[in-house]
Amino acid sequence: YLLSRVIHSAQNSLPPGPRRWPLIGSALAFPSTHPWLTFGKWAKTYGKIIYLDIMGQPLVVVNSAKAARELLDQRSAMYSDRPTSGMAELSGFAQALPMKPYGDVWRQQRKLVAQDFSQSAITRYHSVQETEARKLVRSLLEDPSTLFDQLKLRVGTIIIRVTYGYYLTGQQDPFLTAPIEVMVNFAKATAPGTWIVDYVPVLRYLPRWTPGAGFLRTAEKWSKMLWDVSWDPYLWSKKNLETGQALLPNMCASVFRAADGKLSAEEEHHLVWATSAVLGGGLDTNTSTALVFFLAMMLNPAVQAKARQEIDDVIGQDRLPTIKDKPSLPYLRSIMTEVFRSNPPGPMGLPHALRKDDIYEGMHLPKGSLILPNIWYMLHDPEIYPNPDEFNPDRYNNLDSEMEKVPELVFGFGRRVCPGRFFAEGTFFAIAATVLATCEILPPVDSEGNKVIPDVRFSSGTITFPSAFEINLKCRTPKAFELLSRDSTDPN
Ligand code: HEM
């Protein structure tokens, strides 16, 4: 009763935001690309919580880490839902846990992922991550111009191997090319402000032949692709667990074993969509992170040299670093942190949805609002990170308590926080440590021997990527080259 009275009195105190017009609300002001940059600029005018209304759909942008913590973490029972209608749902993405509404099905799927990728369970995947990192560096030494393709291949190999026990045959393997294509659709389907049907759900009932209903045909096509991408590797894994071709351990096999090989139709459904979420969650995010790392290293030779020195001091040159060495390499951890801070792969995370009316610092946040955390701005707020555009791993003073604040934002919030965080950090560490221990990352040179420094832009969308750039890679010593050709046999 009290809350409803407070809400009533706060009816007129929605958070500030751009002007709202009748019917369309603030649709005209919604940025068509890179919304995190515009929302960040708006922080100066409107403050850290911004209210928009797109054709009746309330949207709340959260520009402050403190507010995100207080709302999405501390009030997580109210803030853990996802938007339930619109293009993402029409395209089938709401079947997999990242976009599932908060509830039992989400809980079942999430449990499967959380078990297999818990901090203690993932040590059994270390050797897969380390071996693929070595293969990556070897291929890059052969031809550094293949950086983008090789990264997709190696990150894809890791995630598909640990999820289904399948080892990719190469870059053209459909088990890799199909999910990459589906991730492009995912980025488009979930980009806020793109689809009118996200705000006017009744449009989904348009007859398919009407002008303007093209999005329905697109959604149908995307939905079919998603279905195949989710079921095909799962069915392969199920069949080949019996033939012995599926490599162990892997997530599907672990779930089968725990159930004595007998899954009900419902359990099988949960497993298919949970594994599909792992594939989707782990592919583009880790590729984007590793690309930003290579770019940052090429542009910052002094940072690179300092990291190499740390590895030489702590590990020496007779073996390669393994993921177990991470706690003893604080400078390398600062570099990883700075990579995440400078360009978080998901600049606005994933939208949460608010289940009930709420009041925050006297402002009314209406039930059903989409909550968009502007992670990018939280990590570029000059009051918290002075000179935010400078790549400076020293800003953390090697302190884990300072570093930790970055992944705590980059991997999302509350009950929806990324369940793949520690596995993702393992893949990233394996790549970063292996390449720094063995190579120098240099800019390419033109025909006259001048360094070519690329002008890199970042794409818009749910997961952001740097535009194409090239690197040069020089192996440090013959011994380093020799170490790279061994698989990691760490029995962890
Ligand atoms: C650098 C790598 C990664 C980053 C930056 C990242 C970031 C995120 C973010 C921001 C969210 C949304 C959290 C929220 O709603 O507040 C998320 C969700 C999710 N991520 Fe990751 N992620 C990464 C890697 C992975 C990996 C490797 C996996 C697979 C094991 C994974 C699986 C998932 C899943 C299943 C969800 C949905 C969780 C839910 O809705 O309950 N992610 N991730």
Quick synopsis:
The chain is an alpha+beta fold. The protein is built from 19 helices and eight strands.
Characterise the protein shown here.
With 492 residues, the chain is α+β, with helices and mostly antiparallel strands. The protein is 49% helix and 7% strand. The protein contains 19 helices and 8 strands. A 4-stranded mixed beta sheet has the order 1-2-6-3. A two-stranded antiparallel sheet has the order 4-5. Strands 7-8 form a two-stranded antiparallel ribbon. Strand 1 (49-54) and strand 2 form a beta hairpin. Helix 6 crosses helix 12 and helix 12 packs across helix 14 (330-342). The protein is globular. The mean pLDDT is 94. Bound molecules: protoporphyrin IX containing FE. Protoporphyrin IX containing FE binds at residues 97-98, 110, 113, 117, 277-278, 281-282, 285-286, 289, 345-346, 349-350, 352, 410-413, 416-420, 423-424.
Describe this protein with a few key phrases:
two-stranded antiparallel sheet; binds protoporphyrin IX containing FE; alpha+beta; 492 residues; 19 helices
